[in-house]
Structures are given as structure tokens and as C-alpha cells.
Fold each of these.
Amino acid sequence: MSKTMIKAIYRKFKKYYQRFVRLESVFYAGTKYTCPVCEGHFNSFKTYRGNSFIKGVKVDHTTKNYTCPKCGSGIRHRLVMGFLKSNVQLVTGKKNVLHFAPEEFITDYFNKFNNINYIKADIDPSKYKNAIELDITNIKLNDNSVDGIICIHVLEHIEDDLKAISELSRILVSGGWLLLALPIYGNQTFELKNLTAKEREFQYGIDQHMRLNGLDLQNKLEKAGFKVQIISTGDLPGSYFDLTLNTPHSESDKYLFFCSKA
Ligand SMILES: [Zn+2]
């Protein structure tokens, strides 16, 4: 079977699956929660199921009220979109906004604004439509050339995250902003050097992750010249989340770092 045929079958399957997911969402319909990504209203979200090793111990990540039954968004997606929608000053005026590893729902949001020059980027741009190739640790863009950067679940994959943070700061204009999210485990970052992929999976849950970030990521960001505001799910207006959740998965997903360049 040719690659094109496989791709066509996959697209058809995806279309039917998405239609099925949207149909299924009627069983969750209600007024308790609103999803800022799809604007659907629900009495509950779907349960997330999964497990992984964290610091060598198997952790159950099962989390009720996690996934939007209509659009599939998780806590971090609703947090990002809720934050964007309640901070409209980020999309006013003429701005260059750069988005690493671009999530489609964020692209759809920024594409609504004609005043925003929205640029998608990735180390492997072939994964995305109209993305440019950029290495976050060596960004081929001028100093002070970007007004805003979105970087969701990227930095934990980068071995030299300090270099990436300094590059992000370098390309931002003074007063520019960086919207950063990544899985957070507790207060302190946990990182062991020279691990194999298998060892990383055993320590960090995912073999492509280079560390378990803690809230002390704030220090790294401040050292690079950022003023940092940590936003958690409880800080946003609107009912996007079940705030009673307290599982390793919901905890790891509930923070955003909003950084402004001095
Ligand atoms: Zn949704």
C-alpha cells in the first residue's frame, strides 16, 4: 500500500472519529463547565487514563474531569486558551507572534487577527502546515524582532534549556512576552545527567523529556531577564476546570509561566 493511500485512509478515519467524538459530547452536555477552546458547555469532562514512571516509581495518572468531550482539549490547553481570551491586549496592535511546535487551536485563534503577523516554527517544520524551521537553542532571527512567543510543552524536550531561554529572551523586543507551559512536578526541578532514553522514561515518564521541571523554573527565567508571573488554573475567570482535582496529572498540567522581557 502506498504512503498516499495510508495517509488518505488515516484522514478519513480521523474525520469519522472526530465526528463520533462530537456526537459523544451530548452525553456530557450541561452548564457547569465551559471549554474556552471549543466554547462547549458541559456538566463534566472525560476521564484521562494513563500511567508512567516518575523518579523510578510507577504513577497512576488517571484524572476525572480532564478531557473536553467535544474538542479533546486537556487542562493545559484550556488554561492557555482561557489565559489568551482573558488577556486581549496580547492580540491588539501590530505584533509579530512566534509559536513553537504550534498547536492547531492556538493557530486558529491567532489567525483571526489581521493585525498579528503570526509565525509557526519547529525544528521539524514538515510536521506542520506553513511552519518555518527554527532551532530553539539557536534561533535564526534578529535580536529584538518578536513581540510575543508561545511555547507549550517544548522546553522539557530541550537538553540545553538555559540556551533556549536566553535565545527566547534575545529575540523578544523590550516589553515583549513569552507564554510558556510545561509539565511541572513540585517545587524543585529534578534532572540527572547522561541518561539513556530508557532511563529517562524511568525517571521522567517520557523518554524524550530531559528533566522533571519544578516551579523553580522561575529562577532560570528570571536569570535570563524575564519578569515572571506564574498563573494556575484557579487564577482565571470562567469555569474551565474542576478545581477540586489533585492528581499527579492535573497538578503537572495546571501552571503557565507568563514572562515579560524587561
Ligand atoms: Zn472543548
Amino acid sequence: MSYTSRTQTAISDARTDDATYLTLQSCPACVWPVSVKAPTCPQCGHPINAYKSSATMVLVFGVLSLLLPMYGVVFGGLAWGFGNREVRGIDAGLRVASGRTKARVGRVLGVIGTVFWSGVFFLFVVAMASSGY
Ligand SMILES: [Zn+2]
């Protein structure tokens, strides 16, 4: 890759990230305005983005748990577990706070998926048993 095309890639990357970089949140430790992309608070060094947010993954797992009968319980359990971890991490100021709603929605979907498909499986087993097989 030539120097020019690399530079252009870097510039277009910076452009797509601009909006996110400009989104500010207040530092959980000192209330200083910090970019949501910053790894630590420039004022006090408190970790802001120290751990990558898994909120989107939690939401995807939650949706999958509702859509996939075979793996609903698996994805539901993953969304449930990762969702708990994500929300706790956000509350402790260790994860990107903007993912909180996504993580909570994903966790709720995961709980619904887990309970629903467990119920379906249970009824299926009961139906099989009562039909004499
Ligand atoms: Zn700070």
C-alpha cells in the first residue's frame, strides 16, 4: 500500500470516528468532560474506555436467543451473563457508559429467551412423556 492511500485511509477513518470522538461524557471520578472514545480521563486518569464495550454483542446474543429455537437457551444465557457483567462494569465506571441501554435490553431479551425456550423444551418433554414414548 502506498503512502498516499494509507494517509487517505487514515483520514477517512478519522472522519467516520469524528462524531463519536466529539460525544462527551463526564468522568465518573472527577466529572471532567471526556470523549467516550478516550481510554482514560485526561484530568485524573480514571479509566473511561479501558475495557472494550460488549454491549452490542449482548444485544445481538439477546436477539439471537429469541430467534433461534435450538440455541435460544445458549445465546440467552450468554446475553444474560455478559449483560450483567457489562452493566456492572458500566456502573463501576470501567466500561463505556453509552452502552448501558443496549446491554440492559440485550440482557432482558436473553432472560426472556432463556425462560421461554426452557419452557418450550419442558412442555415438549412433558408432551413426549405423557404420550407414552
Ligand atoms: Zn476524571
